[in-house]
Fold these 2 entries.
Entry 1:
Amino acid sequence: MKTTEIKPGIFWVGAIDWAVRDFHGYITPKGTTYNNYLIMDDQVTLVDTVKHDFSHMTVENISSLVDPSKIINLVINHIEPDHASSIDKIMSLAPEATIYITDKGKKGLDRHFDTSKWKFNIVKSGHTLKTGKYTLTFLETPMLHWPDSMMTYVNEAKLLISQDAFGQHIATSARFDEEFIECASHSELEDSVVDYYANILMPFGELIKNKIAEVQKLGLKIDMIAPDHGVIWKKEAGNIIQKYLDLANGKSSLSIAIIYDTMWHSTELMTIPIMQGIKDEGIDCKVIKLRATPMSVAIKEFWKSRGCLIGSPTLNNILFPSVAEYLTHLKGLRPKNRMIGAFGSYGWGGGAVREAYEEFKKMKLEIYEPGLQVLYKPSQKDNEMCYDFGRNFAKKIKEYHTNFN
Ligand code: FEO
């Protein structure tokens, strides 16, 4: 893979991971990229590294531009291993380089590497590094999404190197948004942004809003955003900031997701009249079976919709395991501004729907009650109840959605 000059003298020198499908449990059907950037200035400066399996690729890319021993500064925006686990390789080639990193980043690196021989410069928001014609300004972004996280703004290039923020898990030969939109589509790119936000950044909406406000207050002019995954925002740099604000403000379409699992198809049969009731209320509805869908996709579909109905059969008086796993995952993402309800079938004691509502109460979601339970297989009368359940839920969602317009 050749390097790409993204701004005069600033090069993408990263790696494309076409094959990764399980990214620490986050399913990535489209793979990803590990982006890092080389600033060819009076002081050669590398911003971030790549996942260690790909260190040979970034070294090859760097070497096509400069002898890696000439790297004077290594900026580490984030220490998660997909970005920082090639540090030892880079430092073995450029042992005199100084690492620019946050205090928390340094403490984290100390737990992963023998850092005793490396030089560090601990930075805070507003600290700068002059590399020659370029000035780098560091901007701490704690908990976006790790305590160590920061971004690097290249003043003269109006370039924000944003680490994970604004990323997408897409393996593509396109380096820029406009190329991707031309060879794939705008909606595919947008879907990847929502997927990434929902699965990684959903818990941090308030922090995101505050950080964007802080950047706007600083008056930084940004005409390009270079994240550490996926395509670089060039044509859509302004739009992606607005998109993040929308996501952080809980914006969604007026739609409903039915997310369920089933044992002997009874809960599955319930989804059909429920979906019809929702549709007849004029609301778009998606039906997602958990064991047939990657977790990350089911999370994305939840976040894209204003409302969600969770369907689970009862197994041993509690939730079906795949549904329990989904709710555990969802709870960790601390969703807000969504309405949720539950339904399911049971054979004798029941329990799944009750347990689903217990889980909902631990989340900051608007709860739709009562849930709906059906004994064994839905009868004609049960089907009518399911239809009404879907239709009434849809009516509530219409009202609820007006809060977000
Ligand atoms: Fe792409 Fe937080 O690592």
Entry 2:
Amino acid sequence: MRRAAFAVAAGAMAVSLAACGSAKESGDKSDGGKKAAKGGDITVGLLLPENKTARYEKFDRPLIEKKISELTNGKAKVEYNNARQDANLQAQQVDTMITNKVDVLIVDAVDAKAIQNSVQKAVDAGIKVVAYDRLAEGPISAYTSFDNTQVGKTQGEALLKALGAKATKSSKIVMINGSVTDPNAAQFKKGAHSVLDGKVTIAKEYDTKEWSPDNANSEMEAAISAVGKKNIAGVYSANDGMAGGIITALKAAGLSVPVTGQDAELAGVQRIVTGDQYMSVYKPYAPEAEAAAEMAVALAQGKSLDSVAKDKVSSGSQKDVPAVLVPVTSLTKANIKDTVIKDGVYTADEICAGKYKAACEKLGLNK
Ligand code: BGC
């Protein structure tokens, strides 16, 4: 439903953007007003933060590239790079984009604060910046993401639901959060705490360097020895990648407790099918990616963002940034069909391949 509604809205946006093709340049002084308005013949720089979490290469990149191509009749070029969790490398990648004179930049920052310098450099070179998913500091022109505090609340609520009668103050849970360099991680954490605090005891809590599944695995092992395996009622994991590492540690200790996640990664959905993971947060990447593409193309062409960006956000350094924030859904065994399968993110065959066949049959997924 939501996806369909968004597709219609996105279609309307494309029409309205095309319709205002002759709109005047948006106060951009970088070219002294001399440069002719750009058509489809633009270059968009796209920088994503890491490749251990599946979403970036599997969804974000191809979806953004596809939409940019659609919006420009295949005329635009996309220059892509992935920072592999290295903030210094990402700064170099921005420099390269500036040297190559891209028309606009879409950046998902490894480190939202450290990127500020690079955003400023790009803007000084006349290149507008769209912050993607993570709210980069600095003079960005637009932002697209999800309601990230709501993601954390959704995770916390699902964990309480999974604990059921065990959701009491004497129940101990472990919280494994994302990276401190990612402002989203702070919002997920805040949202989750707002739901869990006072309802259960948070026996151990970690911020995980680089969102790394291996680091999450070590944190879980440490929590098991510190808290005692019999005393752990559930685990808050901020995303599916880390949930993978956490569940490996739990299994090694012979433990099976509810674990949360986020991203609806294929491996995460498969763990939900088998019952190893309780939930994930389904964030439909298409509307997020498409909004980024719409805004980047509009900015490169000097058009207004008004028809696309209905929200506004503020970062530590920038007020009232035009934004698109996409709603999220809690994903459990109960709604795999109505979410990721219905939206065409995965086919039932993909989810139910090989060893997942029997568990899928029990859920009626491969019928
Ligand atoms: C994203 C998540 C992702 C995490 C690790 C966050 O900023 O919103 O979807 O799992 O980074 O890359």
